[in-house]
DUF7144 domain-containing protein (Streptomyces nanshensis), 148 residues
Amino acid sequence: MATHAAGGSHAATAVRSTGKPSFSGWTKLAGALMFFGGLLAVSSGVAALREDAVFASTRSYAFDYSLTGWGWVHLFLGAAIAVAGIAVMLTGATWARWVGIVLAGLGMIASFMWLPYFPLWAVITLAIDVFIIWALCAGMGTRSQPST
């Protein structure tokens, strides 16, 4: 019995000494959603830059910005989210999770401001960003604890 406990603590120490972060399936899912959501934001930004006729425009919205300007915002923000999603999926590092949370928060703001141009897509991306933030925060609480 004592041999088994010693072997178990040795294995826990070996896992801990590798320096590799432990991350959950929720974190990997959040990274995948960030990657694909970032690619979709990039395509949305390109569509806004190429043709203004793709999107609806309302004059009575409180925030009246240039569609071309929002195209550039979505293009760069989407690229950053996709790269951060790759970092979260591959490493699960704490810095990548924090970057993902910040970028998903910025994505939520951009989606809210995008409402007058593409309302259904903006609501969907808002919901995805909320889920990404939840999954990244929930994943931070799952660390391997050494067995005693």
